[in-house]
Design a protein that fits this description.
The protein has twelve helices and 13 strands. By secondary structure, it is an alpha/beta fold. The protein folds into two domains: 340 residues, Alpha-Beta Complex (Spore Coat Polysaccharide Biosynthesis Protein SpsA, Chain A), CATH 3.90.550.10; 40 residues, no CATH class. The strands form four sheets. Strands 3-2-1-4-9-6-10 form a seven-stranded mixed sheet, with helices on both faces. It has a two-stranded antiparallel sheet with strand order 5-11. A two-stranded antiparallel sheet has the order 7-8. Strand 2, helix 3 and strand 3 form a beta-alpha-beta unit. Helix 1 packs parallel to helix 3. The chain is globular, with a radius of gyration of 22 Å.
């Protein structure tokens, strides 16, 4: 069985289900990797049909009865294409209340606990962010040679070289000398090594010791460092919302990354896993480049092609695309695209960008006070 883990809150569940549907759609039912998979895991499950199957694990803080019903219905529908199961695991976010939130949620931390919910006999698990879309049969990826590493992951683009202040008088922690800082949105994990090294404990200890900027991602990079097999960008393509593939290849030749051979930049027009840093459900992909040109994020149509035809949730996505909020967003983007032709508007955007660091410093004490109140309220509850 192939175990794949997602995390999020209830409003994110429909988007996670789009990724599940994409995995099923691109699985080749005429191919079997059962014998090879058997070498990696001795797990047997009588509840599943004979042969290969997926088990999708959803780590979440709460789930309504209505959403549970929809997930059960989706599981039945997806099973008609390829054997699969959806398992829901409820977590208490109080475990992470002392840590900084990521996009107003603690859900990003849930992946740290994934080993608790996957069967102990399982040797490998794939973690995927809920805003990803799989465009290939994922089974060979999960059965690849991991070269004795704990994780397989893709470099973050751009590479992050930040320094983290220590808590309670501890020294700072720097990523400046790292050979490669990876993105935690797509990770193939050797669970045996993960458990042997007590990775969950080490990651949480790091979070308790430093003021992280990219919460779980900073901690995972610090704990595993060089014990990560670095994969080409096509396995977690999220950065071409700011540059096109040709520009990236040109930049690489002028200033190559130490970890990246030329194959890291192959097939960027046909990625295997797309990671939508620009969310299709609240954007048509319009963005403004560093030099204040308007452009559109590619691959948005691929996400909608899956979303609008998937079982159970298709009506939800059709309505979303016709909603007043989505239409207002389209009008606002069209208006901004027109304004970009004027020099005065580009100047205003430049001033706004230059003021951002100062605004962050001004806002910091108010955010600290707000977070203290929120934590106290959450603990009281």
């Amino acid at each position: 069985m192939y175990h794949i883990v997602f995390n999020g809150d209830e409003k994110y569940v429909p988007y996670i289900c789009v990724c599940m549907a994409s995995i099923i759609e691109f699985t080749d039912k005429n191919k079997s990797y059962e014998n090879l998979a058997g070498q990696l895991s001795a797990n047997e499950d009588d509840r599943l049909p004979a042969g290969e199957a997926y088990c999708f694990h959803l780590l979440i803080d709460a789930l309504s009865d209505e959403m549970r019903r929809k997930l059960c219905e989706l599981e039945k529908e997806l099973n008609s294409f390829f054997p699969c199961r959806i398992e829901v695991h409820i977590l208490d976010d109080l475990l992470f209340v002392e840590f900084p939130r990521w996009r107003r949620s603690y859900a990003a931390y849930y992946r740290i606990l994934l080993a608790r919910f996957v069967p102990s006999e399982t040797n490998r698990v794939l973690y995927l962010d809920g805003d990803t879309l799989v465009q290939t049969d994922i089974r060979p990826f999960m059965l690849q040679d991991m070269q004795e590493k704990v994780l397989c992951a893709v470099p973050n683009y751009p590479q992050l070289r930040h320094v983290l202040p220590g808590k309670k008088g501890a020294g700072a922690y720097s990523f400046q000398n790292y050979a490669c800082y990876f993105n935690s949105g797509v990770m193939l994990i050797d669970l045996q090594k993960w458990r042997e090294e007590d990775a969950e404990k080490k990651v949480i200890e790091f979070l308790n010791s430093y003021h992280v900027i990219c919460p779980d991602q900073d901690a995972l990079n610090a704990v595993f460092k060089d014990r990560v097999k670095i994969l080409p960008y096509q396995w977690n393509l999220m950065w071409n919302n700011t540059v096109d593939p040709e520009d990236v290849r040109k930049t690489w030749k002028e200033c190559p990354e130490p970890f990246a051979s030329e194959d890291f930049y192959e097939n960027l027009d046909q990625p295997k896993i797309i990671h939508y840093s620009v969310k299709p459900w609240n954007s048509n992909g319009f963005r403004i480049s560093q030099d204040f040109r308007g452009f559109y994020y590619p691959n948005m149509a691929k996400w909608w092609n899956i979303a609008e035809k998937m079982p159970v949730f298709s009506d939800y996505f059709v309505k979303l695309r016709k909603s007043a909020e989505y239409c207002d967003m389209l009008k606002a983007n069209a208006r901004q695209e027109k304004l970009l032709q004027y020099a005065w508007y580009r100047l205003l955007l430049k001033l706004k960008r230059n003021m951002r660091p100062y605004m962050r410093k001004f806002e910091k004490p108010f955010k600290i006070l707000r977070d203290k109140r929120r934590i106290a309220k959450r603990k009281k509850q």
